[in-house]
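Let us work through a complete example step by step.
Step 1: write down the sequence.
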Amino acid sequence: MKLATAAAAAATLTFSVAPSFAATTWDVVADYAGNANTGSSVWQYGSSQNSVFTRFTVQNTACIISSGLNCWQSTNPQFFVPLVAMNTTASTLFYANSVVHPNNVLNLHPGGSQNGSMTGGDDIDTVVRFTAQTGGSYSFNGFFQALDTTPTGVRIKAGGNAVNISGSALQNTLQPGAPTNFAFNSLLAQGDTVDFVVNRLNNYGNDSTGLSLSVALVPEPATWAMMIIGFGAAGSMIRRRRAVAA
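Step 2: predict the structure and record it as tokens.
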């Protein structure tokens, strides 16, 4: 009975510590469903023109093809784009003649010029934005991948600063079928943003680009120390109770 009481007490202590240190994580694909895409959302989908971010306001469950895609789009798209699209099926989708869209990435497609031409006019990037809900150190891991025949460029900006991608701090040009991996940590204040951008580079045709991304809030060293102390205290309590019972 005493051993059972000791174990229960230790479990109580352990679980009283653990919730405070549970990992806080986000996933760009898994979190897509149900996201209202508001100004307070962790993930925001939109476009950028002349460095001005504008959230998409139209959610379309039958964009490009009749079923299988869920898209966030602008109010006045040119040929369906710019957009951010999720493959809602259990397999790879093939659409728009040449797009190959697995279900483990979002499709970010940049926009066309205001005059509707395939080249020239205004640059309209497509952006997936992560917003820090609290201050701390964040770990980012993921990849960009070309989903169509003529990918252009991608870039990442954390808190307004360019992040190095495969040797280029400003922009990386994708190769068809070859993922471009990235992994970095960033110290963010509450409300700071990290943008994942697909840039049409004056030609937005056949520029579907996949994004896979996971984000974790990294506990501070002092937090880890407190957790270790908590588990150590639980172990000490068990040992003392066992000694008393013996």
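Step 3: interpret the result. The longest helix spans residues 221-245.
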